[in-house]
Amino acid sequence: MQTRRFCTALTGRGLALAILATWTTAAWALPAIPGKYKVNGFAIGCQAYTFNRFTLFEAIEKTEQAGGKVIEFFPGQKLSKEEPDVKWDHNASDEVIAKVKAKLAQHRMLAVNYGVVGIPKDEAAARKLFDFARKMGLRAITTESTESIDTIEKLVKEYDIGVAYHNHPRNPNNANYKVWDPNYIAELVKGRDPRIGSCADTGHWARSGVKSVEALRILKGRIISAHLKDLNEFDKHDAHDVPYGTGVCDMKGVLDELKAQKFQGNISLEYEYNWDNSVPEVAQCIDFVRKYGK
Question: What is the pTM of this model?
């Protein structure tokens, strides 16, 4: 791991401080994403679910067209037009994995995460997900499986692969659904391995009446990845995505906070609107990040 290698070059008090930094914040807990996959300092691309009406191969193509450099997979997407009956998930054969890796290389794209996917308590079943993530060179797995955190922590340590807890909107009809609340996630991961943290979904926070910058501050040091969204309305469950900077989510403030926290993870655009023709709007979001601070 990059940070561990760095620590070996230090001695004495400097070594102790470096180790403390490495193991207490998500910013240092996982290797940084190479600069060639970044736009203006941020590793930005798409959650493939943005293009769920298309195949995975088309999602990779569309992410590149929009200017994205990284991609996050979700389970169950059709592989390609040529093989529409093949589903892409953690049960994929080595042959299918090789095809996806070749497609990523063709489009100079880095796969960074996989989810949202359930991680079972059963270690053998959970291990299958981590094996897949290792084969694909993924940085993290995105989940909402809070009940499996003990198994997750064991495998995170073994595989050196992060787990990011994603938040969907608050559900007034289900008091047991708590991951929408950043305070709940902060408490859940407190004292756990620093490679376990949050997949910060700003749009779903807005739908829940939570201000994104405040939520990011609550989760400081524990943000593994982000599903950045801007919405047309605040505290409305049926609010929809809009290009960054045109909605209610204070996207400049969000980027300011991520930069201040030395965020090293990926930003996934999960644009859930205008499904059939969203590439121009996704490109507008990426352009917002490209122009940020300039």
Answer: 0.90
